[in-house]
Amino acid sequence: MAAANGQNSAGRSDVKTSRPEGSKKHVIAFVFSILLTFISFGLVMAGEINTDFVYIMLVVLAIIQVFVQMAFWMHMKDKGHGFAIIGILTGVIIVFTCVIMALFWTTW
Amino acid sequence: MSSHSHVEGQLPHEPERATLEGRNKITGFWLFLGGETVLFGTLFAAYLTLRGQVMDGPTPNELFDFLLVAIATALLLTSSLTSVFALQAMHKHDTKGLLAWLLVTVVLGAAFLGLEIYEFNHYVHLGHKFSTSAFSTSFYTLVGFHGAHVAFGLLWAVLIMLQLKNRGLNTTTAPKVYLFGMYWHFIDVVWVFIFTVVYLMGKVG
Q1: CB distance from A76 to chain B under 8 Å?
Q2: Which of A25, A60, B82, B176 has its CA 20 to 30 A from that of B52?
Q3: pLDDT tens digits, residue range A20-76?
Q4: How far is B41 from chain A (nearest CA, A)?
Q5: Residue A49: CB partners within 8 Å, gap ≥ 6?
Q6: Contact of B156 with B183, CB cutoff 8 Å
Q7: Using alpha carbons only, what angle is made at residue B83 by residues B79 and B87, rounded to the nearest 5 degrees?
Q8: What's residue B13's pLDDT?
Q9: In chain B, which residues have their Cβ closer than 8 Å to the Cβ of A9?
Q10: Between chains, do B38 and A95 touch, taking CB under 8 Å as contact?
Q11: In contact, A103 and B52? CB cutoff 8 Å
């Protein structure tokens, strides 16, 4: 509480020193996302790569990027996110069932 | 309370979790996002099932343009980062910074939405209407639903900004900002799958 009180005047410098550390993780997550997006686009634009390989890589890259964004930007890696994981995981299980069924019906 | 800007000094570091109501809102919002995941997942499943049925209309490969998708992706990804900065400003009880970063987020989101409207308009001129084929219908439904979420998010952010201006940052307004941040990241996460499954895979196949 005392530390929070001092932030208006004296605490400024303290806040400033803690700031770059705070946003660094998020900027790294951003750069990582950009990088993964570039690889995805590059894979498709290169053209002459095995189609099945490209499909699998695209899905893997998208899942990695989503994990990075949810862990850092949505704070899922932080404590006290048990219900968050249960909520999202329930959705993801239903989605996977739907998507795999859809692909199963149309592709096989 | 709003005239007491010095009360800010008594705000805890994470004002969105200071009250039980705030914490419950965050937990409840995660369950809502689980439901949203199902909504988008079923639309993705429908799109994956129907994307080959182009009838006489244009194919995904003829339609999609790398540059357009790349710009849209960059806009939305950057706006997701600026909404993180907004939350960090909030954690420092810097209301001005919070409002400024929210404004940047809204501007980037509006640019994304403008680009999508241009894109849809462009496609219709190429003969890719909502009722052209099963592919076009499932495409517009999936991508349009995402666009509608962006539009709703923009409206929500503007209302939060107005409320912050009127009431200041306190334990009632802080959870709203946090929820908007989560919503906005979720929209970006959905877009990651849209540009992968719809646009990039459309270019491969």
Answers
A1: no
A2: A60
A3: 347 888 999 999 999 999 999 999 998 888 888 999 999 999 999 999 999 888 888
A4: 5
A5: A43
A6: yes
A7: 170
A8: 83
A9: none
A10: yes
A11: no
The least confident of A79-83, B64-68, B113-117 is A79-83
Would the CB atoms of B200 and A58 count as touching at under 8 Å?
yes
Which residue among B27, B45, B92 sits closest to A102, beta carbon to beta carbon?
B45
pLDDT at B205: 65
Q: How far apart are CA B140 and CA B135, in angstroms?
A: 9
Q: Is B143 left (phi over 0), alpha (psi -120 to 50) or beta?
A: alpha
Give the model confidence (pLDDT) of B112-162 as tens digits.
999 999 999 999 999 999 999 999 999 999 999 999 999 999 999 999 999
Per-residue burial over B54-81, b = 16 or more CB atoms within 10 Å of its CB, e = otherwise: beebbebeebbeeeebbebbebbbbbbb
Q: From CA A74, how far away is CA B184, in angstroms rounded?
A: 10
CATH 1.20.120.80 given to domain B65-204: yes
Residue B188, pLDDT > 80, answer: yes
Domain ranges, ordered by start, for chain B:
65-204
